[in-house]
Amino acid sequence: MNSAVSNHLSNALHHLYINPLEKCNLHCKICYTKKTGDMLSPVQIINFVAKYHKSYELQTITFCGGEVFALSYFPEVVNTLNEQGFFVQIITNGTIDKLHLLQHPNSVNLLVSIDGVEKYHDKNRGEGNFQTSIDYIKKAQQMGFHTEIFSILTRQNLPQREKFEQFVTNELNNTPITYHPRKPPAYLKNHPTSNITGEVEGFDFLTNEEMKAVMKLPNVFPPKELGCYQISLMSDGNIYGCCEGTMPIGTINDSIEDLFEQMKKRLELWYNTNETNRCLGCTQPEFMCGVKELIIND
Q: Tens of pLDDT along 260-288?
């Protein structure tokens, strides 16, 4: 791999992603994940973090679900990790308020899912949940937490983006927004577990041209230059080279050195088999979150 990818990998390995459960308290109409009963225990999480940090300096840990605040033990795990010196990011729908149980708000970044303006958001996530999540963000900011917004884009809410951004500027102190195009059919057809289509009417997939335009936005996931990989521990104990991985690189019981080696091999495969060398690489070179053709042909 080239030096840009190698250097980026060195930085990416300071960041660990953990998905401790698949279940959620909401029933979003465009959710694409299977709500299995797999779940990591707090001991598994703390022990894996310790093993990782012993081998390589870990700085940031991102948690996602499911809805992580549905776990009774979750606030205690976050507090423990903060006290060990780690910065914790939490992807949440903002409808389960346990903020008072988190003891180190300046060491926590809350990434709250808000899918645009109120009517559209509630159509997907349930009536009243827009205001609940907005109030959650405001409370978190007052308590000293860092906050961001994750927003899924479809054909219906894409034209409302400027209106939504103006609302965020006025009401939420210009909280940063990262946009996520709704997982395209190419993703859903090829992912072994995250493959539920959900409702389409009223939440249409972006066209290829719309996808290309969205991927040029400054804050979008996956980013146009890729490089969004990290060691990712999932609820079933498997470990992937990114949070959307399709092929495990190991399990929770493997050594960190072996996991790193497998991740490097995946990146080398990308480098040797993909025409686009301006990107920072992908550990799923045959998949690329279902946007491979858009990136290569643009």
A: 999 999 998 888 877 655 588 888 877 77
Segments of the chain with pLDDT less than 50: none
Place of tokens 């346990």: 98
Single out the residue of 33, 35, 40, 68 nearest to residue 237, CA to CA: 40
220 Rama class: left (phi>0) / alpha (psi -120 to 50) / beta: beta
3-state SS of 78-117?
A: HHHHHHCCCEEEEEECCCCCCHHHCCCHHHEEEEEECCCC
Residue 204 exposed, middle or buried by CB count within 10 Å (0-12, 13-18, 19+): middle
- φ, ψ dihedrals at 91, nearest 5°: -90, 120
Alpha-carbon distance of 237 to 251, in angstroms, equals 6
Separation between Cα atoms, residue 208 and residue 218, nearest integer Å: 18
Encoded tokens for 288: 């690329």
Rounded to 10 deg, the angle between the 42-55 and 256-273 helix axes is: 70
- Alpha carbons 111 and 17: distance in angstroms, whole number: 14
What does the alpha-carbon distance between residue 287 and residue 277 come to, in Å, rounded to a whole number? 16
Which CATH number applies to 3-297: 3.20.20.70, 1.25.40.10, 3.10.180.10, 3.30.930.10? 3.20.20.70
Side-by-side strand order, sheet with 250-251 = 177-181, 146-153, 108-113, 87-92, 60-63, 15-18, 231-233, 238-240, 250-251
8 A C-beta contact, residue 89 and residue 107: no
